[in-house]
Amino acid sequence: MLEKGNGGMFRGHGITDEASDRDVMRMFPLAFSMVSVFLFLIPAGLALRNDINPVVRYWRNGENFHYFLLLIPIIIVAAHIYHANVGFSKYVTSAAAIVPGVILVIYAFDMGTTNPAGALFSIDCNIWEDKANLQLEWEAASLLYKSCLQQTASAHNLTVGYLAEHFRIQDCTEYERDLIHHQKSWTYLQHLEETTGCTGFCIPGPPLWTTSSTPHKDSCSVAVAAAFKYMAAPHAKQILLTSFLTVVFVGVSVAVFGA
């Protein structure tokens, strides 16, 4: 009776362990996907927000890294479908953990190495060619606006000051014609003036695209530098640290345990 009972207990434990293993495997797809969302999808969303931000994107030299970031949710969904329908696979699991991490590490490193905040904060406009060129683009827009105001004032017997209070550069008939040759720079400067409350570029100047009643503070160069220093750069460092540690941890686990 005692031996039989012990045998029954041992057999009972075997069944319990097997059922427990099945429960773990049933929970694995959901658990792995939730961890992936926390480790990869949330940082990817943060990186995507940085990459498509017009203030930051202008200085990214046409890089379309956000397309690679969009691979991360696709990988997470594909891994979840595979785990839920086929089961655990060390190759799929490892790839689904390493590839998104590597994408984020590359993005964060690239963002860190192309951070222009230092040059943009500098009072020297000629420290960087791109910075000086954008100042020249603002000066071209300012010249067009002044000429427009003077011609309109003469034609309609009005004062330049009155026109400057009520009309913006985009109200000038010459603006659309000249915009064709300054599309990228003038659109960017307009966006900066409208969204950050800055004027000019290297140095503050009179507002061109927004009304003079709108409060304007810093030069647009300082506003852009602040966006990199206090938003893009800290986010990139955070993404780099967490993603690098995740890739290292998964890589070591694969090497040691053959996961």
What Rg do the Cα atoms give? 29 Å
N to C succession of SSEs: HHHHHHHHHHH
In round numbers, the mean pLDDT is 86
Shape: elongated
Stretches with pLDDT under 50, minimum 5 residues: 1-12
Q: Give me the number of helical elements.
A: 11
**% residues in beta strands:** under 5%
**How far is the first residue's CA from the last residue's CA?**
44 Å
Q: Share of helix among residues? A: over 70%
Total domain count? 2
Alpha-beta classification: mainly alpha
What does the largest sheet look like? none
Query: What's the total count of β strands?
Result: 0
Task: Give a verbal description of the structure.
This protein has 259 residues and is mostly helical. It has two domains: 2-117 and 235-257; 119-230, no CATH class. The protein is 76% helix and 0% strand. The chain has eleven helices and no strands. The protein has helices at residues 2-52, 54-57, 66-69, 71-85, 90-113, 117-121, 129-156, 160-166, 173-179, 183-196, 220-257. It is elongated, with a radius of gyration of 29 Å. The relative contact order is 0.13. The model is unreliable at 1-12 (pLDDT under 50).
